[in-house]
Amino acid sequence: MAGVVVAGTMPGSPASVLPAGTGPAPTVDSARSVALKAMAVAFPHAALRPTIVSRSQWRADETKRDPRAHYANGVTAIFIHHTDTPNAYDCADVPHILRNLYTGQTRDQLWGDFGYNFLVDRCGNIYEGRAGGVDRPVVGSHTLGFNQGTAGIAAIGTFGRGTKVPAPMEHAIAALAAWKLGLRGVDPRSKVRLTSTNDKSRYPKGTSASFYAISAHRDGFATDCPGEALLARLPAIRDIAARLQGRVLREPARVQLSQALPSLDGGR
């Protein structure tokens, strides 16, 4: 859109504000390069964008939300959540579940929109959460103190200790994270530094802390979210996401037999 400048933000600074769905958006072309600040930057480990069910498809009531979206400079980390709702749902009923969650987060939580940027169901379907453009760095309300420069992905269900995390859900989370992080060339297994913007997080406002590029909600805020079962799957999700970005996974160190065992003459 001519004449519109998206001035991103650094952690702790005011977010840029535009009407949701307006302004220039990063795009991924056939060469898997990203348009960034009018300059094409090729990221060799970009991942393909997965199919995402739009807000219009799950029939979000757009009159309930703040019409203006807030943006950061880019997404360098993902926080994983669960919705703390029942697990025994039919995936055909997920749009209705989303509308209920959306009502609660706009009316009861007063977050102005969905707190999560994306949600994933047990069948592996991915849904657009917060409005503003799925391929843009929309600032959500998912991890208090660390919403700037991050995206929140919520697994629909409750994943306490002993709960099975469905494989389709796990792979969908990984695919979404691989694509979203790939827009900035971020390795899903890497560590990144984020700065807390709120004293109510695990870190005082202004404190810089290290996080995995794919972290749990509890890493940034005092909560049990996303549950012990989903927390335990994050290493595997990071590896899947790295593979989807075309990265070679590091093999466990191999010790030569001659180094691990003494020689037959007693090591002399």
Secondary-structure topology with pairs:
Elements: E1 16-19, E2 33-36, E3 39-42, E4 68-71, E5 77-82, H1 94-108, E6 118-120, E7 126-128, E8 150-155, H2 167-182, E9 191-195, E10 208-212, E11 214-216, H3 217-220, H4 228-232, H5 234-244, H6 257-260
Parallel strand pairs: 5-8, 5-11, 6-8
Antiparallel strand pairs: 1-4, 2-3, 6-7, 9-10
Describe the 3D structure.
With 268 residues, the chain is an alpha/beta fold. Helix content is 21%, strand content 18%. The protein has six helices and eleven strands. The strands form four sheets. A five-stranded mixed beta sheet has the order 7-6-8-5-11. The radius of gyration is 20 Å and the shape is globular.
What share of residues are in beta strands? 15-25%
Helix fraction by DSSP (H/I, runs of at least 4): 10-25%
Order of helices and strands: EEEEEHEEEHEEEHHHH
Low-confidence spans: 1-18, 21-40, 252-268
Q: Tell me how many strands there are.
A: 11
Number of helical stretches of at least 4 residues: 6
The order of strands across the largest sheet is 7-6-8-5-11
Please give a handful of descriptors for the protein shown.
disordered C terminus, five-stranded mixed sheet, 268 residues, disordered N terminus, alpha/beta, two-stranded antiparallel ribbon
Summarize the structure.
The chain is globular, with a radius of gyration of 20 Å. The chain has helices spanning 94-108, 167-182, 217-220, 228-232, 234-244, 257-260, and strands spanning 16-19, 33-36, 39-42, 68-71, 77-82, 118-120, 126-128, 150-155, 191-195, 208-212, 214-216.
